[in-house]
Amino acid sequence: MQQEPESTPGVVPVHHRIADSIRAEIVSGRLGPNDAVPSAGELAAKWNCSVGSARAALDVLTNEGRIVGGRGRRKRVRPPVRRIRLTVDFTQQQKNLVLRPEEERAAVGTAELTAGVPIDRTHFTARYSVVPITPELAEEFSVPDDVEVLRRVYETLEIDTGLRIAWSTSYIPVSLISGNPDLLREDLEPWPGGHQHQLYTVGIEIERFVRSVTATEPTPADRARWGIDPGVPLMWVRSRSVDTDGRVVELSDATYPADRVDLVFTESLDRWPAGHQSYAKGS
């Protein structure tokens, strides 16, 4: 749902007034997805301003991610894109798969659970390396700064478009998984059941995830890989896997285009005690 746009405050240059007007048309629905936006020449005539000011107004809306086009193409209202819905149920579904047979675990992947893309329509790669831990990761894992971690970089592309639909970097202290040498082998990816099943093979059960979310400006290379329009930031999600002993045993950093992800947070509250005092006006 789009918020009602606010007009630019103060003494407003004409290009911002033009942008405010078109933005209101988009949010109200009077200009719908893929509808053409007036050209710079048309706007200049309507607003009695220079073509340069009209182009500046269109640039404002492009940088907001509201319109697309240009370089010989008529600018249009940006159409909606397929969205990923990330909820607490997603990681519980992954955990439920851990104790299932291998053929069942192999049939469902992260891209299918989040992006709704069947596994056979994706191309998945994994790159493993053992690296020295950084001070930041040592603090996250509460371990000495001289240990090694397994770094795993995962990428999933949609075959039909060639665009990236999932990317993450995962870290696990090597000492935690030394009991199963297979966990150091990238050629065994994709691992049926994901990292929760990998940890299960060395006796570790995940009890909860702790996540933090920030946003970054994508580079031109990021925009090309993801197919991101101007004005759309990347969300950076750090997930900490905490085991039943309260240890952070795995940490992953994943990125998502902000226009394609709904992060759904459910916060449970304790109930008032039975027989609690009812509301009385003035009390």
Task: Write down the domain tally.
Answer: 2
Give the DSSP E fraction (strand runs of 2 or more residues): 25-35%
Mean pLDDT: 87
**Class of secondary structure makeup:** alpha+beta
Helical stretch tally: 10
User: What proportion of the residues is helical, as a percent range?
Assistant: 25-40%
CATH superfamily of the largest domain: Chorismate lyase-like
In CATH, the architecture of the largest domain is: 3-Layer(aba) Sandwich
CATH class of the largest domain: Alpha Beta
Output the strand order for the largest sheet. 4-5-6-9-8-7
Protein name: GntR family transcriptional regulator
Domain HTH gntR-type: 12-80
Keywords: DNA-binding, Transcription, Transcription regulation
GO molecular function: DNA binding; DNA-binding transcription factor activity
Topology (SSEs and partners):
Blueprint: H1 14-28, H2 40-47, H3 51-63, E1 67-70, E2 73-77, E3 84-86, H4 88-98, H5 102-106, H6 110-114, E4 122-132, H7 135-141, E5 148-158, E6 164-173, H8 174-177, H9 194-200, E7 206-216, H10 220-226, E8 234-243, E9 248-257, E10 261-263
Parallel strand pairs: 3-10
Antiparallel strand pairs: 1-2, 4-5, 5-6, 6-9, 7-8, 8-9
Helix pairs in contact: 1-3, 2-3, 4-9
